[in-house]
Amino acid sequence: MKKLINAAAEVVPEALRGMAAAHPELRVDVDNRVVVRGDAPVRGKVGLVSGGGSGHEPMHAGFVGPGMLDAACAGEVFTSPVPDQVVAATTAVDGGAGVLHIVKNYTGDVMNFEMAAELVAAESGTEVNAVVVDDDVAVQDSLYTAGRRGVGATVLLEKMAGAAAEQGRPLAGVTEVARTVNARARSMGLALTSCTVPAAGKPTFDLPENEMEVGIGIHGEPGRRRVPVAPAREIAEMLVEPVLGDLDFTGGDGVLAFVNGMGGTPLIELYLMYAEVVGVLEKAGVTVARSLVGSYMTSLEMAGCSVTLVRMDDDLLRLWDAPVRTPALRWGV
Amino acid sequence: MKKLINAAAEVVPEALRGMAAAHPELRVDVDNRVVVRGDAPVRGKVGLVSGGGSGHEPMHAGFVGPGMLDAACAGEVFTSPVPDQVVAATTAVDGGAGVLHIVKNYTGDVMNFEMAAELVAAESGTEVNAVVVDDDVAVQDSLYTAGRRGVGATVLLEKMAGAAAEQGRPLAGVTEVARTVNARARSMGLALTSCTVPAAGKPTFDLPENEMEVGIGIHGEPGRRRVPVAPAREIAEMLVEPVLGDLDFTGGDGVLAFVNGMGGTPLIELYLMYAEVVGVLEKAGVTVARSLVGSYMTSLEMAGCSVTLVRMDDDLLRLWDAPVRTPALRWGV
Amino acid sequence: MAQELGIPEFEGWIRAFAAAVAEHRDELTTLDSAIGDADHGTNMDRGMAAVVAALDGGPPADGAALFKLVGATLVSKVGGASGPLYGTFFLRLAGAGGSGPWDAGTVAKALRAGVEGVVARGKAEPGDKTMLDALLPACDALEAALAAGQPLADALGAAATAAVEGRDATKPLQARKGRASYLGERSIGHVDPGATSAALLVEAAATALVPAQG
Amino acid sequence: MAQELGIPEFEGWIRAFAAAVAEHRDELTTLDSAIGDADHGTNMDRGMAAVVAALDGGPPADGAALFKLVGATLVSKVGGASGPLYGTFFLRLAGAGGSGPWDAGTVAKALRAGVEGVVARGKAEPGDKTMLDALLPACDALEAALAAGQPLADALGAAATAAVEGRDATKPLQARKGRASYLGERSIGHVDPGATSAALLVEAAATALVPAQG
Ligand SMILES: Nc1ncnc2c1ncn2[C@@H]1O[C@H](COP(=O)(O)OP(=O)(O)O)[C@@H](O)[C@H]1O
Ligand SMILES: Nc1ncnc2c1ncn2[C@@H]1O[C@H](COP(=O)(O)OP(=O)(O)O)[C@@H](O)[C@H]1O
Ligand SMILES: [Mg+2]
Ligand SMILES: [Mg+2]
Ligand SMILES: [Mg+2]
Ligand SMILES: [Mg+2]
């Protein structure tokens, strides 16, 4: 394992210290591992809290700021945060209009956020809603699984729900935006290499030079199946077709198309993949209204990518275009 | 070699096609491999043209837009562009106030830009200045080398010179800003892994699991020396100390500190490194005025990072803070 | 011969479990690499090390306080799936066991309550390939042995054997809860990491929850 | 026996060089991996393939036009250091050789002009560990052999031998120009990729610039 770290157990607080130094506009509580927008709580605004394991940077702390999240809780690498962190974040961003928890659908994340919500309910009058993101079509949403995972849609949802909150919509309205984005979003991912959890010290799985994992999540888990490596054109089909098969993306106001890098894949490949994804979408009669290309939700240094589509409407387009000012996503301000 | 590509020879045009699809605000000439700001030429504004080998994304095409470059020329992977491209870009952005070529100090880049300038001089009345970036302290600037390489400072210089041009400064003024930034900037880089040039198909060098290369450039070249892997704290010293040894960065208006990822290093490690860099700077009595942390000038999927410092003054701070609107660097607009 | 358990035995159990987790840390993480995200050993070890540090600060007043401390520490230090699950286990154990000295019946009742807490929190069923596949058989074996008149030590031994068998029996199962469920059929053929740590917990009980020779 | 060279021999030279570059493509890139950026073989092959494609479009009017086409194609297709350098070589060769038929003296004069173009463009000196370390000895050997009254074929053979020796002699040198110079002492012990392609160029001349049997 070769990484720019000191000690495996200190990776998360030390990286947060770097974030604090680089982004004085954020309040970083290194001990609690909570990153809060500098002017929180914003009076009368719904507070948005997300969080999850670390190792997915810039998600989530890189999305804290006006127009997106009010706070992010950073767990250990690939380990959901603990309830105390979520309680601290919720309290810090409660501006009197309630707080929305944005939770990716993993057993650990769901349970820890649930326990936090129970604690908040017992301790304070803060109204808390939760939305659970589950956009990964690699996983069947059946009684016999933990349900679909939350992956790429999380980033897009945090942006659009964040814009709704910034506009002053009430908790119910912001929650509805979040639910709408989740309902209209689907994703699929693929890994060319594994990644190495610092504390584990060796790659989570071995992947021979001629194979790739299709249907991966964002925690270095093995995927649904292993197939021979393929050209980008075929990979685009492998990723986009199951997404299109799960939800109708034709017509309407077009889609927001997101090609996300898993951390170790250079941008030149992501742009190349994006061209291929657009090709597949065109053939399927799907119009691209907006796009995002880059490494926004990563699995440490894993090489690979995921594709997320969101079926947009007028309101969502306006929310997507609204100003945002965070370390990792910024425009209009 | 595992990459999200179709064929090695098509990587550059196919990635440009993706950029074109993702960024309708840019004009992408896929055949000429030139990316031009959508509203170019801007009447009365100095045009900024840069370029270099591909494989360094987002540099340079990701820095095209208001407040930064007017055009970027993309060569083959790690191969400088040809004069025809530079001529086409120069012509496209000539708004009547002259054009500045921003050239990284590599033999190939310098010669191809020189030949382009000769062709432009022979063919048109466009006034062209060139600034050659050479900030890499890993290389001795002596008669017995090709001089210091141009690395991380390029990004910062393009931003500040771009802001100067946007403000309407004349060619001489914009050139002076570029020369000032270059004179006040120093960098040093390090690789944990090699990278694989698509057409070569295998890693440029072998690096055992317990070693790293110190003093690398941005083309996957081996570095100046190979040393055992070290904790981030020591790496920060290895990188920052030679930079501080080459130029006085104390006092004045502080420095712009840039921790750059080489492409395969996840953001969590870059933030951790940034914290360590700040630690070394504090000990040395150097004040950080601004910072940039991220993968902006890469070597394909190489793991590693570089540190760049620029000694700032009032004017440079204002130019750095000025609005910029490009795919990879955006604020204030 | 006193048949009652108190702070020394409780603390012995927890410390024995912490030592076992530390010893098997890498093994637990390796199991989690195969069908999860390679952190179960790290998670449990971080949590149990924090528990041990808390205990080193001085013994709590009684069993209920001790197990509450263990549960709360796990909830606030572990995260992931195992934090809330093991945390809930110990919090419920504390509630059901109460603050008096524990006899064999209390042990069985408290253990059952802990396991029911895991079910309530995680909503898994037997055969879903989770820690429950070690915990539930252990509870059943303990109760059956006590009902058959066996002494607590023997009954806990039977529980440990059942936990180990339950752990091993997760190997051919297809996971239906937790991260491993994402793998579908590819989860078959690997022992569940949570069931493995749960077997360590029951084994630690069998060695440590032995009434002191009075 | 005609001693003059024209389009067939010139084209033969260029095509032989292109074939040699294609054949040694990976070797040139491997050499460039050691002390550069792993693209010299790809660069030269891309350029020479474009040159061959241009020639396939029909033969230029005369030698000057042909070598101008080669030079301009290399300049506009190769990039990097080798594009301008080899491009300049052929553009100067075209200028000095002129559009009439070439005799042995024209060959020597044109080659010398081409190499001087490389010097002017790249500002390298002998011993800097560049393509010049193959090209300069080749020019010297050619001129010396012709001055000694040897026929062109033999003189080009001597030039090829000198180029190969010059190429091999780059191995112990420390680079002072181009990317390899960044390596400092670590550039010692590797043959220079540009000197290697330059030796192929001179070898191709020795086989192809043989006056047709009239
Ligand atoms: N719903 C559930 N009910 C009971 N146990 C579960 C459930 N989900 C997961 N587990 C257990 O948790 C273990 C994984 O724990 P751990 O790796 O620490 O957390 P995470 O899965 O969040 O990384 C699994 O091996 C399994 O035994
Ligand atoms: N200044 C120079 N003068 C002459 N030849 C040079 C000079 N710089 C580099 N070269 C030659 O160019 C070769 C490298 O070419 P190539 O790899 O195609 O370009 P780049 O170095 O831009 O990647 C070197 O091996 C060397 O022989
Ligand atoms: Mg986990
Ligand atoms: Mg090159
Ligand atoms: Mg796990
Ligand atoms: Mg090269």
List SSEs of chain C in N-to-C order: HHHHHHHH
Taking the alpha carbons of the first and last residues of chain C, their distance comes to 5 Å
Total domain count of chain A: 2
Biggest interface between chains: A-B, 60 and 61 residues
Distance between the termini of chain A: 40 Å
Quaternary state reads heterotetramer
Q: How would you characterize the overall build of this protein?
A:
The complex is a heterotetramer, with 2 copies of chain A (333 residues) and 2 copies of chain C (214 residues). Chain A has 333 residues and is an alpha/beta fold. Chain A has 8 helices and 14 strands. Chain A has 2 domains: 11-184, Rossmann fold (3-Layer(aba) Sandwich); 185-324, Hypothetical Protein Tm841, Chain: A,domain 3, CATH 3.30.1180.20. Helix content of chain A is 32%, strand content 23%. In chain A, strands 1-2-4-3-5-6 form a 6-stranded mixed sheet, with helices on both faces. Chain A has a 6-stranded mixed sheet with strand order 9-8-7-12-10-11. In chain A, helix 4 (153-166) packs antiparallel against helix 5 (171-183) and helix 6 (232-246) crosses helix 7. The longest helix of chain A has 17 residues, at 107-123. The radius of gyration of chain A is 19 Å and the shape is globular. Chain A starts with 10 loop residues before the first helix and ends with a strand. The model of chain A has no long low-confidence stretch (mean pLDDT 96). Chain C has 214 residues and is mainly α. Chain C has one domain (7-208): DhaL domain (Serine Threonine Protein Phosphatase 5, Tetratricopeptide repeat). Chain C has helices at 7-35, 40-56, 63-77, 82-97, 104-122, 132-147, 152-169, 193-208. At the B-D interface, strand 4 and helix 3 of B face helix 2, helix 3, helix 4 and helix 5 of D. Bound molecules: adenosine-5'-diphosphate (2 copies) and magnesium ion (4 copies).
